[in-house]
Amino acid sequence: MMLFKPVFLWTDMLLWLLLAGVAFYVWRVRLHEHLREPWRRLLRSRSGVASAVVLLAFVAVGVLDSLHFRLPLEKQGNGAETHYSPEVLSVFDLMVGPLRKQVEKTYSAPFASQLYTKETIELPGGKQVRDYPRLKFGGAHLREPAREQAGDVAVTALQGGVYALALCGGLTFMLALWLARRRSISPGAAWTMIRHGRDEIPWRTFLSTVGLLALFVCLATAFSAKYHIFGTDTVGQDVFYLALKSIRTGLMIGTLTTLVMLPFALLLGIMAGYFRGWVDDVIQYTYTTLSSIPGVLLIAAAVLILQVYMDSNQELFDTVAARADIRLLFLCVILGITSWTGLCRLLRGETLKVREMEFIQAATAFGVGHFRIIARHILPNVMHIVLISIVLDFSALVLAEAVLSYVGVGVDPSMQSWGNMINGARLEMAREPMVWWSLLAAFVFMFVLVLSANLFSDRVRDAFDPRVR
Amino acid sequence: MINYIIRRILYAIPILIGVNLLTFALFFVVNTPDNMARIHLGVKHVTPEAIMKWKHERGYDKPLMWNSAAQGAKQASDTIFFEKSVGMFAFDFGRSDEGRDIAHDIKTRMWPSLAIALPVFMVGLAVNITFAMLMAFFRATYIDLSGVVLCVAMMSVSGLFYIIGGQYLVSKLLHLTPISGFDAGSNALKFIILPVVIGVIGGIGSGARWYRTIFLEETSRDYVRTARAKGLSELSVLFGHVLKNAMIPILTGAVVVIPLLFMGSLISESFFGIPGLGSYTIDAINAQDFAVVRAMVFLGSVLYIVGLILTDISYTLVDPRIRLE
Fold first, then answer.
1. Which residues of A touch B15 (CB under 8 A)?
2. What is the pLDDT of residues B215-235, one digit of tens each?
């Protein structure tokens, strides 16, 4: 019997493919000085380092959340074949176990120990009262929440703070040791260098960003064992857990869309610029036609069609997760089809310029074939455009997901995403007192991710765009 | 110039045919009329007769491209393609799946859309350019830096939150304007003002930053150095020279969206309950009314192409060196 049954979702596999691609790119960059130079420039800027750290934290959550499996159900009788639960879990789900399992009855406010709505409670004597019932998990360890909670929160915060401080201290120590080895100086000298910001990489910014992240993680861990930090939603699920799970959805939309459209944009853009003539005419016609349809409408139309297809072929998907996953993948494909035109146009323009350069003429004169010229001489010279447009598009795509889910043509309603969180919370705006915590959680997470993506893309553009230099 | 415009319009025809074929393929070939009928009538427990009836009522029971059963010209015209797609070139959008006249709906609903989108566009343009000029005037100071930081922060907030926050603050807490709704005539003002203000604020982040980049690019040119060297004040350099020369990139981004203002905004119209074309489209998407979505896709492409032609014409108005031949 196996401990678990791995589940390979399409988007997971594509994400791993993407990571493999990134690893290959990193390996190439390490070998070539001219490729390393722009990244060095990026790491010398403070906002570049800080945003990279935050983005990496998001990516780590997203990657951990992309290792899926199904756990076996309790065995019934001897020798029977093992059945696996229909619920698809990820490594991340296991790591945040209590968050996933501590489900209340319905809405409850952040740090509350009572439900949001009144219910009839039966007292031990048999009498019934209408009151806010205690939560099953949030603040369940307190006997009199009204009196004890403030003290308990303070103690827990202090605990979290101490952990964070220890974590940061250890990290700084390790950084100093590593830097000392690398620059071959004494650890003490390395520490002074970090403290006074004398190294070319702004380590102080790095450490303070990591410190803030560590503080957040430690506080969240300490509190989420006892409370619901961002409250619970209509079916009692922890909103903090939903927001964390939404990270994967956001990252997938932001990265897979580019992965899907990149081959088209690269191939067609370079072909149009390189071969010119009728090839250019056909490709230009194609992207002008596609780009003249307003983006949202084309996406809406395509997703509608997809919905119809999936409704009429329901037997193709064995779990809810697989169904939601296919929809996410197709959403990425559709977004990719509507967004490749911009990059394609840029690549065509750049190829037109590059193909007139002397080294291309020399290659042609030597009788090098078209394919080799494109692969060896043109492609490396237009890659900076690709990189810049990938990071520029990322934040727009994350924001687009929320809007599309609101319109009803986004990800599957069963999939955790910030758009679905906002959409669900919107219906409760009119309630008194307002249910605001889902909105707050979605806002905070989206804002941090998009802000760091925006800052990072600015630095990438500064570092890679030859015109900016 | 007239020749040029005629040529551009002729050039638009193959593109519109492409759009038309694409939407036709998407709505009738990938997704057959049978599927549509099943979605509308409920996926399970639907009889073939009910599907046939649904299709017949909407004219979806004809052959797709070629009717071999008919005679003469009818072979090409008595088909779904001819009746549902070719008619769009004459702006004959037919009836929605619910049976309403789409052209009539568009005519009545575009005015509320325009009432919101036009002020958002005009005020937004003015506000963004003003902020960008301020940042360019104080460039490389803390005012400029904090302006850029503010812009990046504002860009990073999803448009949904501007609307939700604005509705909560202005309508629910302060009771200054109604939360949503629309009215004809001068009564419309109190419904329009909040969506317009939110639309403008939501656009400042990316807009002001974009124009600032344009202005800074212009200020590094030689003519600016000359203007400064002859003793002009910084203000008159900015307004008299930089703004004038930055008109081309500004127009490139701005003019193309003017025709699309008729289509309204999907999100803000549905949040504020404005009976415009944006909420019309959203309703159609949610009700899976394919005929309406198809019509809106085609209309959107036509308006976009009109915008491109207008952009070219506007170039000649601000830059006498540009002649359209």
1. 285, 288-289, 292
2. 998 888 899 999 999 999 988
Which segments of A319-393 are extended strands (E)?
none
Query: Which residues, including other chains, have CB under 8 Å from residue A178's CB and lie 6 or more apart?
Result: none
Decide if B156 contacts A451 (C-beta within 8 A).
Answer: yes
Kindly give, in sequence order, each residue whose CB lies less than 8 Å from that of residue B229, ignoring residues fewer than 6 positions away.
Answer: none
What pLDDT is stored for residue A80 in this prediction? 60
Contact A109, A239 (CB under 8 A): no
Residue whose tokens read 């509507």: A338
Kindly report the nearest CA distance between residue B264 and chain A, in angstroms.
12
Q: State the best of B158, B180, B206, B213 to mutate against chain A, taking most chain A CBs within 10 Å.
A: B158
Question: What is the C-alpha separation between B243 and B237, in angstroms, rounded?
Answer: 9
B31–chain A Cβ distance below 8 A for any pair: yes
Task: Output the furthest CA–CA distance in chain A (Å, rounded).
Answer: 99
* Yes or no, beta carbons of B300 and A312 under 8 Å apart: no
Identify the residue among A45, A293, A420, A467 best suited for mutation to test binding to B, counting B beta carbons within 10 A and taking the highest. A293
Contacts of B172 in chain A (CB under 8 A): 429
Residues on chain A touching B153 (C-beta within 8 angstroms): 451
Q: Residue A108: what are its φ and ψ, rounded to 5°? A: -150, 145
**Res A109 pLDDT > 70:** yes
| pLDDT for the residue numbered A2 | 66
Which pLDDT score is estimated for A447?
Answer: 93
d(CA A336, CA A330): 9
Which residues lie below 8 Å from residue A154, measured CB to CB, with a gap of 6+?
A: none
Q: What is the interface size between A and B, counted as CB pairs within 8 Å?
A: 121
Q: Which residues of B touch A289 (CB under 8 A)?
A: 15, 18-19, 22
Q: B-chain residues within 8 Å CB-CB of A426?
A: 164
Cβ-Cβ contacts under 8 Å for B311 (sequence gap 6 or more)? B251, B252, B255, B256
Residue of chain B with shortest Cα separation from A399? B158
Say if residues B138 and B192 touch (Cβ distance below 8 Å): no
- A426 — pLDDT class (breaks 50, 70, 90): confident
Name the residue among A451, A468, A342, A449 with its Cα closest to residue A42.
Answer: A468
Phi/psi of residue A114, nearest 5 degrees: -130, 155
- Across all residues in chain A, what is the average pLDDT? 85
Summarised one tens digit per residue, pLDDT across range A3-50 is 788 888 888 889 999 999 999 999 998 998 888 888 888 888 888 999
Alpha carbon of A409: minimum distance to chain B alpha carbons (Å): 8
Residue A321 Cα, gap to closest chain B Cα (Å): 21
Residues of chain B with confidence (pLDDT) below 70: 43-44, 65, 72-76, 324-325
A5-7 and A119-122 beta bridge pairing: unpaired
Would you say how long chain B is, in residues? 325
- For residue A434, the chain B residues in CB contact (below 8 A) are 168
Phi, psi of A121 (to 5 degrees): -110, 140
How high is the ipTM of this complex? 0.85
Query: For A389-408, what is each residue's pLDDT tens digit?
Result: 888 889 889 998 888 888 87
Mutation target among A288, A297, A398 for the B interface, most CBs of B within 10 A: A297
Per-residue pLDDT of A128-161, as tens digits, reads 777 777 777 777 777 777 777 788 888 888 988 9
Instruction: Decide if B35 and A312 are in contact by the 8 Å CB cutoff.
Output: yes
